[in-house]
Amino acid sequence: MEISLRGIGVSPGVAIGPVVTFHVQAIEPPRYGITDPVAELSRYDAAVEKVRFYLLRTKDRMADEVDEQHASIFLAHLVILDDVALRPEIERRLNAEKINVDFLVQDLIGEYSKLLANIEDPMVREKIADFSDVGRRILHALLDREVDSLEHLEHPCVIVAGELSPSETANMDMANTMGLATDEGGRTSHMAILARAFELPAVVGLRYISKQVMPGDTIIVDGTNGVVVIRPERATITEYLAEKRRQEDERRALIRAGGDGPCLTQDGVQIETFANIDLPIEASESLKTKCMGVGLYRTEYLFMNRDSLPSEDTQYRAYKLVLKTMAPLPVTLRTLDIGGDKMVSYLSERKESNPQLGWRSIRFCLDRPDIFKAQLRAMYRASVHGNMRIKFPMISGLDELREAMASARQVREDLTARGVAFDPKVKIGCMIEIAAAVVLADKLAEECDFFSIGTNDLIQYALAVDRTNERTAHLYDPSHPGVLRLLKQTIDTARAAGIPCAICGEMAGDPLFTELLVGMGFDSLSMSAVSLPQVRAEIANTRGVAAKRLAKTVLSLGSAQEIRELLVQRSQARATLQLYRTDPAAGGE
Fold first, then answer.
1. Do both 14 and 128 map to the same domain?
2. To bridge 307 with a disulfide, which of 76, 107, 295, 350 should be the other Cys (CB 3.0-4.6 Å)?
């Protein structure tokens, strides 16, 4: 019988194939008395060294094949392995209790996991998986057992698991992995990030899917809509196969149609189309979609899924890789934007009642100049390897912008004094994400080189809607007339000041808004690479004069519903017109 489940889609696309279930086998070593604690401690030390060798080897392979961020996961595991309290506690209990070391290790894993599970901070609780992963490997080494792995899959399949640890994900046989579905996980988990980087359809947060499937079951993973279908009926398979082919054919056709150069409207207006990326590995993938550069590199992902700050050199290598990959195309690096829904446990001093309005983004950076300047140094050092720009997020006024600019100036002066090469012509921009920044845009434009509108935050702040709250998320609406007027006010101010203004939020990647944004005057859109082909096609199917008329009409309306209905009608009309152009016989008699 067909079962349909809804979870969180973290990587778009459709995968259809047989299930391979992955369950970490529980190890329950027997408890027995010992007479030689020293010998048992030696067994423990030998097991730790075996695990250390594995972690170092995996770290190096990930650095070579993927990127430094994923390699840094295993540095965090090495820190856990060398926990200063773990070995002394093992030694103390060996001497006091005279019990075998493998039983003690298992007992300590259980105790520590229970302790973390009671901590409210979700980022801290996620570390349970890291600690358990390392502890499990020590146990396997002690018992001389092979660790369960997805490294060698016999055939193409969809992997279903309770959850996947960093090491399990890192060693996955990507060539035979069609898609992923897990009980646990979130959008920023290591697995989710890797799935997007390798364009694997993935759905997480499915609760009990690992207990509802059997190896060999057919399963459909719809990562675009966050749906998984277990043992689908023939009609459902036929429907999703058609959808999968449609998506793939459309993507290939759109990429071909988009061409290699500038993206032009029908009347010759050039619109720049950039990619948003989270990881260095995504840069090369983005080039396949004919992007004109990177409009948003979210550098905070270098700081997430780890237990300590990335070093300046680690950051430098990541930025260098992206710049060299994209050269001579421009790459815009956003400085650290943590907080809100992107918590970093080792930097969170205390729980905030309203983190979206709290100690986040540029506020954090200005309070922690040690972290901020280290990041800026890494950026400027990398600037000699490509065409780099920098932008500051969540700027609310001139004081913040000037303080951030002063930090960048101090970093340049320091590098100059030390004889370190950098590009002195790097442009610095200001993100417009707060209503106050829109009102003060004329003043901000006098002191920065460009604007970049982050619609995700601007919409939630303008409408007082937490987009992560399931009870209010339906109120988060880019069609709201208040939001659209804020966008128009910003682009008009930028044009009057003679500086570029781009949009880099999810709205830029929604084809429904493409004609409207062009008509408002935006000539630069930045989005997820997966959205680029369709948006480029929409631009090529847009006439500038008609887009301006649409924008004028939309801005005169006072209802989000009226605006959305109009945009849907326009989208359907353009699609029909495009069909007629490519196949006149389809246009009627």
1. no
2. 76
